Amino acid sequence: MTPISFQPNMKKQATHPANRPMKHLLIAVAGLALVMPMTASAQGTEYVSSGFSAEITDNGEVKNLKVGDHVLMNHLYLVGDYRDALAEKDHDARFYQFQEKSPATIQSSGDDTLIVEKTNAVLRNEKYPEGAIYNEKITFTPNRIRVEYELETGVPFDSHAGVFSTLCELPLSLAGVGYKVTNREDSETLGIIPVEYSESDKLRAIARKLAIAIPGGIVTIEGDEDTSLLFADARAWNESALRLNIDQRVPWHPNPVTIPAGTKTKWAFTITYEPEQN
Fold first, then answer.
1. What is the per-residue pLDDT for 44?
2. Contact call for residues 95 and 124 (beta carbons, < 8 A)
3. Does 84 have pLDDT greater than 60?
4. Is residue 217 part of a domain?
5. Per the structure, how many domains does the chain have?
6. Residue 115 belongs to domain spanning
7. Please, is 221 exposed, middle or buried when counting C-beta atoms within 10 Å of its C-beta (0-12, 13-18, 19+)?
């Protein structure tokens, strides 16, 4: 792994008085220590800063996204899924960026910035060798990460909504901390990520913005105007993780509709970290 260390001089920013009660409440319910050692990799690039750090694989997948020693995301990568509409029996009806091995361009810009880019990369599975063509751009700075995707389908798909999204897998070490979801009408809901999974109290929220308390500050994931976030507890389908899917906002149809080949979609979001002010 090639380490790239960025340690800029960070100026302390004043906290707007209106934001203090929310931050105090979120941090008050952040009851667990989120300490996890970084997993070494034989290949790829490591971004290290006074805020965010992460591993970037050669094909542009993000792993072990952290703030200090606290793991925020195990993985961040592009996925596709059309199983619910077609009920495919003859193949795995999913796409994964980590199965697509074309290299990303990874370069530093300035003293504290790392840019990851892919252009005209192809998502494929065993049935569709050209399921979609996509562009990816991820820009890392110490307290802000910008993630952008553009995608064009290579074949028709039947689906209730969209097929492709960014999958962010969050660790269960976040269970017990406070969160806030903000929907498109700016209505806010506060909650605590359940320590134990319960069918009657399962976590599932559609939002444009999600704030999560971690020791020392607040991490916020916010979509652009036409971007939607789905925050859910993957323990509902026997996965040991929390799940955040981010994609272009499209209507949901009770019956599957055909998405033609050549359909273009794009979505973008930012991940920001605001340290607690003393």
1. 87
2. yes
3. no
4. yes
5. 1
6. 19-35+76-275
7. buried
